[in-house]
Amino acid sequence: MKGGGFWIVNQDTNGSSNWDIDLRRYSNQGVLLGGNSIGSTSGGKDARPSLPVLGNGNVVVAWHRNRFLGNEVWLAVSTPSGTTVLAPAVIDDAGISNRDVDVISTPAGFAMVYVDSEWDTGTEDITMKRFTSAGVLLGTTNLSDPSAPGDDFGHDANPTVTRLEKRGG
Q: What is the pTM of this model?
């Protein structure tokens, strides 16, 4: 955030059938500057949020929503002041398994990885989606490759993503 401070995102289990995602902004001194619930109020179980800050200062929150017949991947983008850039939206609801989301800032915007069962491999794979800083989808890729060494056609799980900084030289 410009001028410092930090964001906290958490899963709020306010009842057995309605879990929300809460996003809060704090000053460097730990003073609450604002926040809101960005997850479901419709009885879904929103869980396991991921939170990167983008190069332009916007913050991305991604999470999965547990549904009776499967999971969905959701996404929201806000400015540093908390103004909505992209309201909470379903990014992937195809297949039964869409979960364990991780997001990273990129020079063009951001990228997310997550477990996904919609590909035609018959297993759970890792999907990557790339977006602009406003949340516009740039592309989708199945990162699981059964022909790659070490990929044993099993279920891939728990993806994480990190950004490599370009170094001089």
A: 0.83
